[in-house]
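Wed. Picked up where I left off yesterday with Bacterial extracellular solute-binding protein, family 7. The coffee machine is broken again, so keeping this brief.
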Amino acid sequence: MKHLTCAAVALTLATCATLAAPVAAETLKISSYLPPKHAFTLAVEAWGQELSQKTNGDITVEVFPAGQLGPVNRQFDLVTAGAADAAIVLHSATPGRFAMSELAGLPLSHPAAGDLSTISSERLTALAPDYLADEHAGTKIIWMAVTPPLKINLAKVNPDSLEALKGLRIRSAGQVFQSVLETLGASPLPVPPAEVAEGLAKGIVDGAMFPFEADMAFDLGPELDYSLEPGVASATFAFVMSEKTYDGLSPETRAVIDAMSGPARGAAFGAEWDKGENAGRAYLGENDVTIVTLSEAEQDKLQGMVAPIIDAQIAAVGKDNPDAQAFYDAYTQ
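Structure written out below (tokens, as returned):
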């Protein structure tokens, strides 16, 4: 009897100890192909910290920047395959796959309220549930983002007219940017972002299409002499979470994530990107890069040159998605 009593006490103590043991926090892996100091990488790190705080530490987030989990064109697949719980997706990195989303980045196309990322990112995120969910199947869209318009940044050649761009080799990513550059008489080259500085230094490329913020993030200032305004076109992004990961979380955690998603988050991130763009402009100035603004006549000429690209792209996407024109109109209104 004595032995049974001791055994019962031991079992009770063990049970109590088990019940008292803290539940380990769940760690979500976020993939970023961008550098650690890029605005988007910093934004998802801040998002993860906020998520951890609002779940009282039940959820923690680890961000893997600089393509540690995979290259730029594999980010969406990392999420749907379960190799990452969330990722930053550059739509143009996989041509044709996110054709509707990329319409928001067409040349000289932006909401009527302006081309600030604050405005365009909010609008695109708001339209995503109705128009872009199918392209992001298997994921939950946390927010969408549209860069400030990408500028043509050049080493050596002064782009004081569109004619000056003819024959230049310019780094770009995606069909839209390729079409724009070819229309301008330049030769687009698909150089990975991390290799652009070396490409400029060695003369492999004459320039690159990036917003000012990315010029700073990839430290292109020492290799550049000029940057051209206005920006020609934008790149679109999505910050997505695995639907499987999201569905596996507690209702309380899902509610927190829902509150940390949507148009307001797109606008908030866009505002940070706009701040980064201003910082990038200052960075170029510190590196003695001259920012050249096209004359009104040249801007009118540019508008006329890219109009057929816009029409053709909408028509091409419309073959598979009849909502293409409606989406573009809703985005630019």
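Quick read: The chain has two domains: 25-147+235-276, 150-234+279-322.
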